[in-house]
């Protein structure tokens, strides 16, 4: 298995690093910091050569070896920086004992290193598929809810106003997890004025499973997903749908991390956690904001695919498992909710890490 070869090469690089550090410091009298720098670079060189000739020997080499080495060097140094950052985040933000944090960071960075090098240094371009739709397709927008009675009417009204102003046919599928505040009842009343479907679930099953249930009830050729708390602006919907209608993309992501996009009202801690989570997912997809919960896609990209997400990042699951390679990121401004309470906490963060492990395993066996 390729990842086994990559791990073996990594262990050999660790041995080269340790031996060279010892020899340069104890036998040649170099200052240990200088020895460390030389040892790190030497291990990067030996790792590159072994990966080039063994791990990725079957990959077609379209670039010069010097350019691939430059990429590998860059990825390796970035991995070192990420390792330190994760050690800090796990310990300072999540309260994990620092030695355990270091082990977790090493494991995460190993997979990060492997997948980035697989898709960047020794890139393999799979043929892209295209997915057609009818001339004036229905757009189904799935909105998972839990205790959003204060926002639901404003949201639905705003969505249909945005769709109508651009002559887009749409429906909204509200999937409510037995909200005790009466969200589902409030949504049912909106069916008198708008094309709204309401799915009542007996338990709080989570955002991702709610999206999958909504997908079963949706009739649209284009599927959208957005939050109910008005943090995803309805006026941005047309910009996300347009590339799909024009055949320029098969999936669009509302992105906070491309030019023109940003978050508003977030404390520093939340920004750090969000950025760290995005970096951890980047080897799985080239999207800048893989954590986005505001996205649209053509139904065809997931036909025949088994989606089994844990946690709340169904968009990342679709990005990783779908056949689409035509993905556009559209900038938008994420606004912190004005009413109600956020549902994100430590439990959701741990579920996200478990979800990442599953997706990396999927990629390994792909």
Name a few traits of the molecule.
single chain, 366 residues, alpha/beta, Spore Coat Polysaccharide Biosynthesis Protein SpsA, Chain A, 2 domains, two-stranded parallel ribbon
CATH C-level class of the largest domain: Alpha Beta
Radius of gyration: 23 Å
Please identify the structural class as seen in this structure: alpha/beta
Q: What would the principal axes of the Cα set say about the shape?
A: elongated
Number of domains: 2
Largest sheet, order of strands side by side?
Answer: 3-2-1-4-7-5-8
Counted by DSSP, the helix tally is 11
For this structure, what is the CATH homologous superfamily of the largest domain? Spore Coat Polysaccharide Biosynthesis Protein SpsA, Chain A
The portion of residues forming beta strands comes to: 5-15%
Distance between the termini: 11 Å
Helix residue percentage:
40-55%
What is the name of the CATH topology of the largest domain? Spore Coat Polysaccharide Biosynthesis Protein SpsA, Chain A
Mean pLDDT: 88
Write down the secondary-structure element order: HHHHEHEHEHEHEEHEHEEH
CATH architecture of the largest domain: Alpha-Beta Complex
Q: Tally of extended strands? A: 9
């Amino acid at each position: 298995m390729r990842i086994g070869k990559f791990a073996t090469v990594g262990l050999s690089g660790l041995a080269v690093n340790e031996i060279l550090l010892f020899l340069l410091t104890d036998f040649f009298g170099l200052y240990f910091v200088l020895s460390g720098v030389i040892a790190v670079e030497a291990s990067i060189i030996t790792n590159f050569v072994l990966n080039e000739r063994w791990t990725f020997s079957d990959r077609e080499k379209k670039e010069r070896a010097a350019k691939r080495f430059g990429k590998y060097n860059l990825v390796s140094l970035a991995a070192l920086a990420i390792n330190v950052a994760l050690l800090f985040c796990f310990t300072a933000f999540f309260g994990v004992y620092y030695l355990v944090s270091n082990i977790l960071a090493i494991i995460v960075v190993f997979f990060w290193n492997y997948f980035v090098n697989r898709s960047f240094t020794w890139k393999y371009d799979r043929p892209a598929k295209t997915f057609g739709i009818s001339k004036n397709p229905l757009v189904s927008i799935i909105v998972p809810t839990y205790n959003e009675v204060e926002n639901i009417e404003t949201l639905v009204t705003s969505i249909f106003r945005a769709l109508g102003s651009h002559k887009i046919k749409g429906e909204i599928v509200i999937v409510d997890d037995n909200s005790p505040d009466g969200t589902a009842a409030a949504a049912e009343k909106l069916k008198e004025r708008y094309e709204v479907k309401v799915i009542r679930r007996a338990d709080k099953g989570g955002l991702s499973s709610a999206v999958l249930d909504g997908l079963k009830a949706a009739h649209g050729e284009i599927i959208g997903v957005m939050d109910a708390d008005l943090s995803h602006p309805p006026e941005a919907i047309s910009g996300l749908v347009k590339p799909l209608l024009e055949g320029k993309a098969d999936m669009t992501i509302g992105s906070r991390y491309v030019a023109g996009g940003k978050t508003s009202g977030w404390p520093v801690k939340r920004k750090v956690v969000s950025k760290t989570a995005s970096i951890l997912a980047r080897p799985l997809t080239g999207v800048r904001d893989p954590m986005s919960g505001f996205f649209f896609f053509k139904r065809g990209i997931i036909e025949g695919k088994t989606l089994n997400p844990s946690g709340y990042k169904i968009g990342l699951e679709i990005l990783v498992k779908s056949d689409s390679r035509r993905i556009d990121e559209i900038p938008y401004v994420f606004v912190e909710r004005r009413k109600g309470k956020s549902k994100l906490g430590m439990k959701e963060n741990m579920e996200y890490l478990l979800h990442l492990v599953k997706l990396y395993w999927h990629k390994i066996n792909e």
